[in-house]
Design brief:
Blueprint lengths: L4 H6 L8 E4 L8 H12 L7 E2 L12 H7 L3 E7 L2 H11 L8 H8 L9 H4 L6 E5 L3 H9 L20 H10 L1 H7 L6
Parallel strand pairs: 1-2, 1-3, 3-4
Helix pairs in contact: 5-8
Length: 189
């Protein structure tokens, strides 16, 4: 098990016999996932190392654990957003939640366990999963792929933490401490 995102990416580089599938995690942007898949298909060294798939189809009952069982030799790649970005987008997209203030929304979800799950609890890092952070997609991808010829959609340069007050920021840090320690240790303070 790795302890930080940098160790995770350094230890996750592409091996000769690897096969990859890109998957999306709910409430995270998918633009870069499509671009990662395109890179695999266009790159001569990885063209045949990529399986196109999706976990977005909820009717099929597919999940990452089932896919890991069905395809034990496949490695999975996903891109994630920081907790402030995810919460902000859930708040603004959800028709009920966007009627309350962002501050009250954070207080509300802190009491709803399904909204406060750390990604690492759902997807524990191991050699079969590679996490890339949307905010650092280019540098994370280079660490993982050892290639700089991928083209990504750079994320919005919004500092979502500024949209929350001190109390909400502290609550988010508390709720998502596990994810922050692994993915964004610089955001813990």
């Amino acid at each position: 098990m790795t302890y930080t995102i940098n160790e995770h990416l350094t230890n996750s580089s592409i091996a000769e016999d690897d096969i990859f599938m890109v998957f999306g995690i709910p409430n995270n942007k998918i633009d870069n996932l499509q671009l990662i898949g395109r890179w695999f298909k266009r790159n001569p060294e990885t063209h045949f190392k990529y399986i196109r798939g999706s976990l977005r189809d909820t009717s099929s009952k597919l999940n990452l654990q089932l896919l890991k069982t069905l395809y034990p030799k496949v490695r999975f790649i996903t891109a994630i957003d920081n907790p402030w970005c995810r919460i902000y987008h859930i708040h603004h997209v959800h028709p009920v939640f966007n009627k309350i203030s962002l501050k009250n929304f954070v207080k509300l979800i802190s009491s709803l366990p399904s909204y406060c799950v750390n990604l690492l609890d759902l997807y524990p890092p191991d050699k079969s999963i590679i996490f890339l952070r949307n905010e650092y997609i280019e540098t994370d991808f280079i660490k993982f792929s050892k290639s700089s010829n991928a083209v990504f959609t750079l994320p919005e340069t919004i500092n979502y933490r500024r949209l929350f007050d001190k109390e909400s920021n502290d609550l988010i840090r508390l709720i998502y401490q596990k994810d922050l320690s692994f993915f964004y240790p610089e955001l813990l303070s």
